[in-house]
Amino acid sequence: MYPYLNLGSIHIGTFGLLLWVAAVCATVVLHKNFVRNGVSTDALNVVALVVLAGILGAKAWHELEDPAQLAEAWRLILLPLHASNLPAWQRPVDVVMDFLHWFQAGFAWYGGLLAAIATLMACGVSTRPNGLTGLRAALRMLDLAAPAAALGYGVGRIGCLTSGDGDYGVNTTLPWGVHMMNGADQYHRALVVPTPPTAAVQPTPVYELFFGLLLFWLLWTLASKARPLGWMTGLYLALAGVGRFLVEFVRVNPRLYFHGTMSNAQVASLASVLFGLIVMLASRKNLAIEPVPLPPEAREATA
Predict the structure, then answer these.
(1) pLDDT (tens digit, 9 = 90+) per residue, 83-116?
(2) Measured between alpha carbons, how far is residue 268 from residues 113, 243, 275 in Å?
(3) What does the alpha-carbon distance between residue 112 and residue 168 come to, in Å, rounded to a whole number?
(4) Which residues are registered as beta bridge partners of 169?
(5) At what angle are helices 14-36 and 204-222 packed, to 10 degrees?
(6) Mean pLDDT computed over 270-281
(7) Which of its termini does the chain have fewer beta carbons within 10 Å around, N or C?
(8) Among candidates 30, 216, 224, which has minimal Cα distance to 120?
C-alpha cells in the first residue's frame, strides 16, 4: 500500500494519481465512441466536467452521511492555532492546507455517480449529439458515456487499494489476500485499519477492476450496433448495481439495513438495478440510433 509517492518534499497521493489515469482512460474511450457514432463533441471537455462534478458529488455524499463528523472536521480546520491563537481569517495558508488535507480522502461512489449523470445530461442538452435535442440528447450522451464510465470506475478503484482508504474486504486466508501497512494511519487520516492490523484481507478494489473491465468490454461490444435510445444507460445502471451489490458481501462496510444484513451501498445498488431495468423497458419503443462514423477530417478536428 502506497498512500503517497514521496519525491523529496513533494507528496503525490496515489488516489488522485489513479483518478487522473481513470479520467484519461475514460477520455480515450469516449472519444473513440464519439468518432464511431458521428458525434463531433470534444470528449476531453466532457470528461473534465464530469470528473469535477463527480468528485464534488462523491465528497458531498460521503460527508453528509455523518453531519456531526463534518461539523467537527470544519471546526478543527477553522480552530485558532494554540501557539499563536490567531483566528482563521488571519492564517489563510494554514486553513487552505488543512482543507486540502481534509478533502483528499472520504468519497462515496453513488454521490459521484449522481453528479456525473446530471453533468452528462447537461452536456448532452448543450452539445446535441447526432442532432438530438432536449431529453433525447441527454439520453444519447449517457448511452455514449456508458463504456467509458465502466472502464474509468474500474481503473479508479485501484487508487482506493494503493491509498488504503478502507475500501478493502474482510479477513481472508486466500493466497491473493493483501496486507494493509501497519501504522499507515499516520500517512492517511481516513485509513481504517483491519482487525488485527496484520491480517490479510480481500482485495475488493481488484475485484471491482476486473468487473469494470468486463462491463466495459460488454458495453463497448453491444454499442457497436444500433440500440434504442436510453437502453445502454439502463443496462449500465443495472449491471453496475449488480457488481457493487455482490462485492459488498466481502467488503468492510457497516450493515445498517434489513436487520443488519445490508450496507448502505447495497441498498443503493438495488435501487440502481431496479432503475436500470425500468429504463431498459421504457426505452424499447425509442428510436434506435445507427452508428455513423465521423469522416477523417472531422476526426482530426476532435482529436
Answers:
(1) 455 555 556 666 666 666 666 666 777 788 889 9
(2) 11, 12, 10
(3) 19
(4) 251
(5) 10
(6) 95
(7) C
(8) 30
Q: Model-level pTM?
A: 0.82
- Domain range list for the chain: 4-65+108-227
**What's the pLDDT tens digit per position in 117-154?**
999 999 999 999 988 999 999 999 999 999 999 999 99
**Amino acid, res. 196:** P
Q: Please check whether residue 240 is in contact with residue 153, taking contact to mean a CB–CB distance below 8 angstroms.
A: yes
By C-alpha distance, which of 232, 216, 211, 215 is closest to 37? Answer: 232
Which cell goes with 28?
480515450
CB 149 within 8 A of CB 204: no
